[in-house]
Predict the structure.
Amino acid sequence: MIVIPFIIILVLLAKYRGKWIRKNNTKLYIASVVVAIVTFILRDKIKILEPFIQGFLGLSFLYIVMFTGALRKKSTLYVSLMSIRREYSIIGFILLSTHAFRYLVEFLIGDRGFEWFGVIPFVIMIPLFITSFMKIRKMMSVKTWNKLQQLAYIVYILIFVHLLLVAENLNRIIYIVLFVPYFILKVIKEYKLYKEKK
Ligand code: HEM
């Protein structure tokens, strides 16, 4: 449930503080790493950190990154979100690492089963995360970079499956409400682009 207010806040921040986010991106990445490490260390001690550890905040960042790709190119929302998309994808991945490591540790000590639908998208996200940084991106050709980014669609589908499998009742409905319109809009957008190119 908390994902909805998180998404709204992040969209508002993108719209009204986008320039500031871009300008301070390195500081924000460092702050995210600190938050990720601290929340990982304190994961079982402080209840209020639950949204960070459970993946809700990381998911909200990624959801915006994902949904931007389905928006109409000339819409004002698309322009605002596109301007901070890279920053949100990097921060989202860093924050999700806490969640991933928590459950990997629980698996390794034998407290939990292996969460395939969480681990596979997370592993695919690693090269996407690394190549999000401008310095690395510049070392690749546009074609290779674009090809690699296509893997994000597999990530989105697998995350959706992960959420459907692990969430309960209301949250499961919320994930359906969030993801299904994205898949529909994205297919429509791609179909229109394909028609235009023809
Ligand atoms: C790829 C990115 C991932 C995202 C966006 C994500 C997101 C989430 C979210 C939002 C929840 C809470 C669902 C709810 O209760 O409504 C969740 C639960 C869970 N995730 Fe992930 N996750 C990811 C990767 C992983 C990985 C890598 C693992 C394992 C190593 C994992 C293991 C789990 C488990 C075990 C639960 C259920 C926890 C419980 O019993 O309450 N997830 N995930």
Remarks:
- The mean pLDDT is 94.
- The pocket of protoporphyrin IX containing FE is lined by residues 54-56, 58-59, 62, 96, 99-100, 103-104, 112, 115, 118-119, 121-122, 159, 162-163, 166-167, 171 (CB under 6 Å).
